[in-house]
Amino acid sequence: MKVAILGCGHVGIELGRQLTDRGHEAIGVRRSTEGIEQIADAGFDGVQADVTDSDALASVPDVDAIVFAASSGGRGAGAARRVYVEGLRTAIEHFGERDASPDRLVYTSSTGVHGDHDGDWVDEETPISPTTEKTEVLAEAERIALELPTEYGFDGTVARYAGLYGPDRYRLDRYLEGPVTEGYLNMVHRDDAAGVVRYLLEEDLARGEVVQVVDDEPVSKWEFADWLAEACGLDHPPKRTKTERLEDGDLSEAARRRILTSKRCSNEKLHDLGYEFRYPTFREGYRDAIDAYCD
Q1: What is the distance between the alpha carbons of residues 38 and 21, in angstroms, rounded to a whole number?
Q2: What ranges do the domains of the chain cover?
Q3: Residues sharing a CB contact under 8 Å with residue 55, sequence separation 6 or more, in sequence order
Q4: Beta bridge partners of 184
Q5: Longest C-alpha distance within the chain, in Å?
Q6: Distance of alpha carbon 215 from alpha carbon 164, whole angstroms
């Protein structure tokens, strides 16, 4: 199987590594020279191209599957729309118009499209209700990923990621030093975020479907922070309620909405599909970071 990973960054590089290790051919697509060097260091081929530019994508060879994992770089809704909506549409149309079009697409989205559910459980059947301009863009991109490929004779899948963590993204200080605002954490380790996409491609699963990519145990931020502090041999960090955090005068409207958003994401469908987690919960996933911190 030959797979083009468009926007081959933090998760994409791990995906390419996993695919290559299992005998597949991965092609990472990045805009920057530094990104191409990172792909080469990971042991697979890279193509330097802007994933939002159809002419640039012509340098990417024909593939069996495309994974759209591009990032807007944490910028605002306008940048998100350019990448997730316009870029995704451009990529689907470009590859779909080829004589040898791909067999399927996987688009990596975010559980942020669910909006606020007051701490209740959500799954793939829960109607989405994005609460920020950026998550509205992501919801629109999910629709495109599922509908547009069928016009070109292939299938789309949405892999809806919870909060990513892993090498270079453990953010221990945020929770060890505090103050920690109440709410729930829905997380997935980078290796499993990549592993799920690799698994869905290898096993030919979830065509035309959404799959939530989240580990086995959503956890309250306060509980997680206390567990992490104890594991690191530190005192529990200071806490604050949502009301206390909202009293700060430096919050944007988007930040306020994020604070008020609370949900627990189910991965029951992912288990039903047969995926086995390398890091089922944060307890396994943070072990390396804790050991490094204690050393």
Answers
A1: 17
A2: 2-167+186-217+266-280
A3: none
A4: 220
A5: 62
A6: 10
> Looking at the domain 2-167+186-217+266-280, which fold is it?
Rossmann fold (3.40.50)
Rg (CA), the chain: 19
Q: pTM of the full predicted structure?
A: 0.95
pLDDT in tens, 126-176: 999 988 888 999 999 999 999 999 999 999 999 999 999 999 899 999 999
Phi, psi dihedrals of residue 152, rounded to the nearest 5° = -115, 10
Q: What is the phi-psi region of residue 140: left when phi exceeds 0, alpha when psi lies from -120 to 50, beta otherwise?
A: alpha
CA distances 30 to 1, 39, 47, 141, 176, Å, are 20, 9, 7, 20, 34
Q: Which two tokens stand for residue 25?
A: 């051919």
Distance CA 117, CA 140 (A): 20
C-beta separation of 237 from 176 below 8 A = yes
Helix (H, G, I), strand (E, B) or coil at 101: coil
| pLDDT tens, position by position, 238-260 | 999 988 888 876 777 777 777 88
